[in-house]
Amino acid sequence: MTTGTKASFTKALRKASGLGGMTLVRRELGNGLYVVQGSREYLVRVVDGEYSCDCAAGLASIACYHAAAVFLLIIARRAMPEAQPTTHTAPWTEGSAPGSAEIFAGMRG
């Protein structure tokens, strides 16, 4: 996720984690498209590591918890490819996800 600053990214990950993390992802449509539950269903697109969402925050290029939920799902799948988790995720903390140090190092803010 590269939209927004490190602070907005961290806030989005914390909110997503507190609301159910990757369980917010309702469906994977293929081609980098995911349906994520919020106040309604939102569409998150992932292209070349860039996340976008059709929610108000996402349209304003602010990191949102919908995109963060997809990020958590993708990270979990990379960490445990044989399990392909689709339901529960542990609470997120900075530095806890595989590769998160590299992600934060490349972010502004």
What are the defining features of this structure?
single chain, 109 residues, alpha+beta, four-stranded antiparallel β-sheet, 4 strands
Number of domains: 1
Q: In whole angstroms, how far apart are the ends?
A: 14 Å
Side by side, the strands of the main sheet go: 1-2-3-4
Strand content: 15-25%
Low-confidence stretches: 87-92, 96-109
Question: Rg, please?
Answer: 12 Å
User: How many runs of DSSP E, i.e. beta strands?
Assistant: 4
Derived from helix and strand composition plus strand pairing, the structural class reads alpha+beta
Share of residues in helices: 25-40%
- List SSEs in N-to-C order: HEEEEHHH
Shape: globular
Number of helices: 4
If you average the pLDDT, what whole number results?
81
Report the biggest beta sheet as strand number plus sense, adding barrel if it closes. 4 strands, antiparallel
Structural commentary:
The protein has 109 residues and is of the alpha+beta class. Helices cover 35% and strands 20% of the residues. The chain has 4 helices and 4 strands; from the N terminus they run H-E-E-E-E-H-H-H. The chain has a 4-stranded antiparallel beta sheet. Helix 1 packs across helix 3 (65-79). The longest helix has 15 residues, at 65-79. The chain is globular, with a radius of gyration of 12 Å.
Write a short abstract of this structure.
With 109 residues, the chain is α+β, with helices and mostly antiparallel strands. It has four helices and four strands, in the order H-E-E-E-E-H-H-H.
